[in-house]
Amino acid sequence: MITVEQIEREIELLSPGDYSRLTAWLDKRRNAEWDRQMDRDSASGKLDFLFEEAESENKSGKLREGTLITSHCHPPTATT
After folding, report:
1. CA–CA distance, 10 with 5 (Å, rounded to integer)
2. Could you give the C-alpha distances from 54 to 34, 38, 48, 67, 71, in angstroms and in order?
3. How far apart are CA 31 and CA 77, in angstroms?
4. Alpha helices in 1-80 (DSSP H)
5. How far is it, in rounded angstroms, from Cα 66 to Cα 23?
6. pLDDT digit string (tens) for 1-37?
7. Which of 28, 72, 67 has the alpha carbon at shortest distance from 46?
8. What does the alpha-carbon distance between residue 33 and residue 29 come to, in Å, rounded to a whole number?
9. Which is deepest, 19, 32, 73, 80, by most CB within 10 Å?
């Protein structure tokens, strides 16, 4: 089995174009996993407190029009 260290060494040898393709693929993979985790957490009720908090703030007038997020966000991506 290939080690992380071997992968890191090989990445250092990539052309700028191939490196860009690799990081785009990794970002896409990370975002897909984030989506799956958010779906699991939402289905299990782990995120209900966020909806309840937003609803409470909306009722009390603390939530401005257009600030309620109705879909999940993606995690930040690594920058180089």
Report:
1. 9
2. 21, 17, 10, 10, 13
3. 9
4. 4-12, 16-44, 48-59
5. 32
6. 999 999 999 999 999 999 999 999 999 999 999 999 9
7. 72
8. 6
9. 19
